[in-house]
Design goal:
The complex is a heterodimer of chains A (284) and B (381). Chain A is of the alpha/beta class and 284 residues long. Chain A has ten helices and eight strands. Chain A has one domain: Thiamin diphosphate (ThDP)-binding fold, Pyr/PP domains (Rossmann fold, 3-Layer(aba) Sandwich). Chain B has 381 residues and is of the alpha/beta class. Classes of the chains: A alpha/beta (284), B alpha/beta (381).
Chain lengths: 284, 381
Amino acid sequence: MGKPALKEVIPESHPHPLEDLVRMDRIPHIWCSGCGTGSIFTACLTAMKNTGIDYNDFAMVSGIGCSGRGAGYINIDSFHTTHGRAIPFATGIKMAKPETNVIVFSGDGDLFAIGGNHFIHAARRNMDITVICVNNFIYGMTGGQAAATTPHNARSSTTMGGNPESPFNLPLLAYAAGATYVARWTMLHSRDLTDSIEEAINHKGFSFIEALSPCPINYGRRNKEKPLDSLKLYHDRTIIKNNADPGELAIDFRKKVILGKFVDVEKPCHDEEYGRMYLGETNE
Amino acid sequence: MKPAVLTGKHFINGDIACAEGAIAAGCLFFGGYPITPATEVAEHMSERLPHVGGTYIQMEDEIAAMTSILGGAWTGKKTMTATSGPGFSLMMETVGLAVVTETPCVVVNVQRGGPSTGLPTQGAQADMMQAKWGSHGDYEIIALAPSSPQEMFDLTITAFNLSEKYRTPVFIMSDEIVGHMSEKVVIPEPEAIKTFSRVAPDQPTENFLPFKPGPNGVAPMPAIGEGYKVHVTGLTHDEKGYPVMSVDTQAEMMERLMGKIRNNLDDIIMTESYLLEDAEVVVVSYGVSSRTSYTAVDMARKQGIKAGLLRLITVWPFPDQIIKDLALRVKGFVTVEINMGQISREVERCAGYRVPSYLAGHPGGAVVPPEEVVQILKEAF
């Protein structure tokens, strides 16, 4: 694998288009070659830029794990919290300062195993935050243990004989819990993903985007899936079906995996309701 | 709409006095989760915060409640949560995050009998060591022990002031008895209440170092949205806030974090003495136990025992020097507390081998009877 791109090789006359949003003094990042987190992070930063919202009106919160390092690379007010607790931290920011656009950028293990309870309750409250989940089907940073998203039968360092459990259908979970914006893309669908994140940021209420991402080192290696194989799956074995029934969204690459925007509804969000009912604020 | 400071005389319980103290101190965000016997703090905050433009949110568990107040604190607001033993246990990991990210906040623990579900409706003081050591890793913490509803009001304000001044979580280690007893609480005029808010940075936003300490060892604290673009992490970090996995950075950060408290003991430690001048034996107590300890000292004096009382208002950091100095001139110590021996061990540590130190403890659910304290004083000395 080649050396990560360093700042020196970018000519000053042509700065990276996201340089203003990246802590360039922290580059190179920790993400492995072939990992999809960087692509999803790029989509997120591009979407933030595209909204035209002042960067000082954003905050990013991450939990623990590979994608949890996202908060460490973005050049805005950013918080790398404890494992699973990015959402309650984000909730505290949002409710104490509702004008902040709070983005939670974290992984499947962080958001849906240790942090699952916080996810469903933030969705239930329709907390006006944007949650981006990098789903690589595994605990990457700790070396590839089975997660709540690991496919049935898949091998991991703790399920070498195949995963006896079944994974969450994340969009279904989000929908059932009350999320008012739900979408799924892969890191390969960078334009759709970027547009979707922009839409999610502008959406008033709890937005959830699942972004599928390869982990060649800790998932692919044990499941005979090379980095390019994952991308081929994302290309060949996915189908875009907006407004699909969330019940149909279980991930099985032997069949087609459904991508798209599944939920986009308007409903008063928590800070608006609190403001209206307790602080005498009127909804616009 | 009621004002932030309800000047006047009130007959209220400790939990409500604590909530009023928080509002008077300028608290504007409360992340709550119901638990006996601390629920009244959350209930009262939910009612009162909107009067002052603040926000109450009931989270899904105590982990979330504690985490939400850290997020809230970084918006520049003063924030608080309240709980009891089981919830305090759940909050512990996040307490470490608050310590290492230097996030000011106040955590109230209205203690009840433990371990586990224990005695939810009855008082104890058995989380005192958890307050000091409950989160993993080394840290110094500030913990105050109110002994009356009036002190629940007063010390909650002090807790916010210390928390803001030193950018650290501060515990109010109350108990069910003080939390649920109703007494007269005098709330002064707003002008008479001293409140302190964190120092904001006055440097330019470019190249700002959010963890570079000022003269008192504490860094000015920016808020979200001010343009400082802070990065805040639970990882070991440098003055910029960036993670650095090195032995030297760990040492620098830890020395500074511990130093903030250790170098300011005179400002943080508050105690009260009663008949200590000529005392030959010292009763050490705090919180509700100190109330019965006054009686015990009076009873002992009537029986010819020269007893005195040292009441700890600040329990952490522990007043080592005061105990060490007393150990040079008294016959010994008896620590009165509703547990099976926690702060008594600290007293024993500071007394060293110079003089003996005993416990007048109680497993929880009631106060230590003064007669028992006198009995120990008689038998031991």
